[in-house]
Amino acid sequence: MTRFIAGVLRDRGFEPVLAHYEPYRMSPHLSVPSFRLGRNQAGMESRRALDGCETHAIGAWLPELEFTHYWATAAWRAVMASCAAHVTVAGNALAATPYVWTGRPFVAWVATGWAEDRQNRVARFPWPRKLLAGW
């Protein structure tokens, strides 16, 4: 979905800038889990992806709690401020949270309902995270 949208935008003369929550398991240095509170800052890394698109991998405070992945942190706000328009392409609607919380207009392409998406993901969580998730 993201590759398709980036291609459509480029074909129409826009330069896509991608931002995404980077899961803790992929880049633990970007997030601050409960056992590191007070010792670290949530971070962001700039990269290139999808044929050279500017991409921002953003960490989270308390990544063990899913809703924190999309808090409108300084990193999210900085990326949003650098862009003229906003499109969310995601598996569920959580990725649109920073736009809603900051009152920015956006378009969203969401693949599935939140409950269905969460049920599938929680089924693959390790047991401690399932406990935190309430399942």
Output the keywords.
single chain; 3-stranded mixed sheet; 5 strands; 30% helix
Architecture blueprint of SSEs:
Layout: H1 2-11, E1 17-21, E2 44-49, E3 53-58, H2 74-81, E4 87-90, H3 97-102, E5 107-110, H4 114-122, H5 127-133
Parallel strand pairs: 1-3, 4-5
Antiparallel strand pairs: 2-3
DSSP strand content: 15-25%
Structural class: alpha/beta
Mean pLDDT, nearest integer? Answer: 88
Main sheet properties: 3 strands, mixed
Order of helices and strands: HEEEHEHEHH
Q: What separation lies between the terminal Cα atoms?
A: 29 Å
Tell me, what's the shape?
globular
Number of helices: 5
Low-confidence spans: none
> What is the strand tally?
5
Q: Write down the Rg.
A: 15 Å
The spatial strand order of the largest sheet comes to 1-3-2
Helix content: 25-40%
Description:
The longest helix has 10 residues, at 2-11. The protein contains five helices and five strands, in the order αβββαβαβαα. It has helices at 2-11, 74-81, 97-102, 114-122, 127-133; strands at 17-21, 44-49, 53-58, 87-90, 107-110. Helix content is 30%, strand content 19%. Helix 3 links the parallel strand 4 (87-90) and strand 5. The chain has a three-stranded mixed beta sheet with strand order 1-3-2, with helices on one face. Strands 4-5 form a two-stranded parallel sheet. The chain is α/β, with parallel strands linked by helices.
